[in-house]
Amino acid sequence: MIDFHTHPVLVKEVVGSDEALFKAVRDVFKMGSSLQPLETFLFQMDAAGIEKAVLLPIDCSTTQGCRIISNEDIVKLCKENERFIGFASADPHKENAPQELDYAI
Fold first, then answer.
1. Confidence of residue 32 (pLDDT cuts 50, 70, 90)
2. Start-to-end C-alpha separation, the chain
3. Which of 1, 18, 57, 66 could crosslink 24 through cysteines, CB 3.0-4.6 Å?
4. Which residue from 74, 53, 63 is spatially nearest to 27, judged by alpha carbons?
5. What gap in Å lies between CA 97 and CA 48, rounded to an integer?
6. Cα–chain-centroid distance for residue 79?
7. What is the C-alpha to C-alpha distance for residues 57 and 62, in angstroms, rounded to an integer?
8. Distance of alpha carbon 91 from alpha carbon 37, whole angstroms
9. Is 53 helix (H, G, I), strand (E, B) or coil?
10. Which residues, 6 or more positions from 30, have their beta carbon under 8 angstroms from its beta carbon?
11. How many CB atoms are closer than 10 A to CB 16?
């Protein structure tokens, strides 16, 4: 089974000690949960019978004033574990969105 839509917004190795990013996660997603290690994320996938997960970044720069989990963060996670499939995000309201998407791909 493949989870085709997941945002790794609570993975400790991604958010780390970036307080601004964690604040954006809380503000945009209304999540008050604590961060979890990547190992826990993988354990949850195992428990749910998920073999692979498509990881989605979120560039909501113009609507929310932030980027939550960047394309580069997704690349790093995908390099760390073959169970992850990366997806790209570009804020469509930005003038250079096509160029950003081309670069991400």
1. low
2. 24
3. 66
4. 63
5. 35
6. 14
7. 15
8. 28
9. strand
10. none
11. 12
